[in-house]
Amino acid sequence: MAETFLNLIGGEWKPAASGRTFERRNPADESDLTGVYADSGAEDVAAAVAAAREARHAWAATPAPVRGSILERALELLKQRKERIARIATREMGKTLSETRGDVQEGIDTAFYMAGEGRRWFGATAPSELRDKFAMTVRRPVGVAGLICPWNFPLAIPSWKALPALICGNAVVLKPSAQAPGTAVEFARLLADAGVPPGVFNLVLGGDEPGKALVEAEGIDLVSFTGSSEVGARIASRCGALHKRVSLEMGGKNAQIVMEDADLDLAVEGALWGAFGTTGQRCTATSRLIVHRDVVEEFTARLAEGARRLRLGPGLEEGSQVGPLVDGEALAKVERYVRIGMEEDRARLVTGGRRATGLGLERGWFFEPTLFADGRADMRIAQEEIFGPVAVVIPVSSFDEAIDVQNGTRYGLSSSIYTRDVNRAFRAIERIEAGITYVNGPTIGAECHLPFGGVKETGNGHREAGLWVLETYSEWKSVYVDYSGRLQKAQMDTEGLQ
């Protein structure tokens, strides 16, 4: 019988107030019930927010180096539990075990980085324009952060949000995806074991209802959301009306440019990983391949052959290279876009395009790695986020045309160019409209000490990871100390000194 998992509210594991539950099944085998989870509602969110608000002042008053030492303990526990967490993640969301190990490693790296920020909780001093007056800046936490996370990186993304929020002195309410709740439960247990005080980190499980309630909750000061651009736009609008901070990391339609002087072996290898790693279920996945006409025929043939050789299978099975889509709805969406691609003028299906069967694959949501050729920049499959193992090759005749095609979408997350020409590489870095650009590498593979996020409909100006994420979860306070013993009037008393 499957275990039942509860919400963590105020340091206690509690069922949903309604008593409702939901099931999660292994996307590689729908007969495998991975767990039963509390199906939360607005009442549960309200309780979690109240617990966070009660705990936040004591946590904010805890010295930042002490907060950092707790994250150090979380780091050690992540190392110890890496394999366990990775297996839970693979079983509930499907990607291969090697990938979920990398997912947990991202959490380990983030914990290592953020623990150190406890001793780098720096402000700045500045000269005053007046005599006998001291000026400085200090950071303060925002308050209570509501974190809404997707399923595709079930440990990495919560760690990217929660650990910076905690080191900045905020209390947290995490609402993970209903498609990967088990990994979030393990993360919550780990933080409690590391010594995060009751109420400082709260976990509320469920679907859309608790997510909406978290955005609406009066006691939430900041919402951090990773997901689709459409949902992010609604959250941003609502947070604006409620005067809440909001950080958004949303969709992508990422492109890999392959110039005629590229190392084709390297470019094909990068495209295989970028397009079909995580079954294409990444916001940074390579879904467009912009290839110079001089090499497009050879590149397309080699990429198609590589895609056919990829081994589909359950993520926990040794040798699997491509796992299942996360559920039946995701598979139906991919099937719909393949039909759209086949109906659009000129596009040619080179390989894939079907649900994968045989060797037990029909028990899960497997789809063949799919490649279209002879694409155009304005096609729907070249403009809309599919979130599956589907890529389209778009031929171009020049570097300038490649850059125009790369920039010709409403998204701007990740980008890539393969070339041996250093001048082209730097021109691409300058001209590509994206938050991330790789040279001679695929569009995926972020590192936790660099800012992560995008432009246009991919983000709203905030960045995750590195030093830059601290700007999301803290606020600056300016402090003036006047020891002159008299009233001094800034600007008025300095008039004429320039």
Describe the protein's architecture and organization:
The chain contains 14 helices and 22 strands. It has helices at 42-61, 64-80, 82-93, 97-117, 156-167, 181-194, 208-216, 229-241, 264-276, 296-309, 328-343, 399-407, 422-431, 470-473, and strands at residues 4-5, 7-9, 12-14, 21-26, 29-38, 124-127, 133-141, 144-148, 171-175, 201-203, 222-226, 245-249, 254-258, 286-292, 348-351, 370-373, 390-396, 411-412, 414-418, 436-439, 455-456, 474-482. The protein starts with a strand and ends in a 16-residue tail after the last strand. The protein has 2 domains: 4-250 and 459-478, Aldehyde Dehydrogenase, Chain A, domain 1; 254-439, Aldehyde Dehydrogenase, Chain A, domain 2.
Q: What are the SSEs and their pairings?
A:
Layout: E1 4-5, E2 7-9, E3 12-14, E4 21-26, E5 29-38, H1 42-61, H2 64-80, H3 82-93, H4 97-117, E6 124-127, E7 133-141, E8 144-148, H5 156-167, E9 171-175, H6 181-194, E10 201-203, H7 208-216, E11 222-226, H8 229-241, E12 245-249, E13 254-258, H9 264-276, E14 286-292, H10 296-309, H11 328-343, E15 348-351, E16 370-373, E17 390-396, H12 399-407, E18 411-412, E19 414-418, H13 422-431, E20 436-439, E21 455-456, H14 470-473, E22 474-482
Parallel strand pairs: 1-5, 8-9, 8-11, 9-10, 11-12, 13-14, 13-19, 14-17, 16-17, 19-20
Antiparallel strand pairs: 2-3, 4-5, 6-7, 7-22, 15-16, 18-21
Task: Note the main attributes of this structure.
2 domains, Aldehyde Dehydrogenase, Chain A, domain 2, alpha/beta, single chain, five-stranded parallel β-sheet, globular
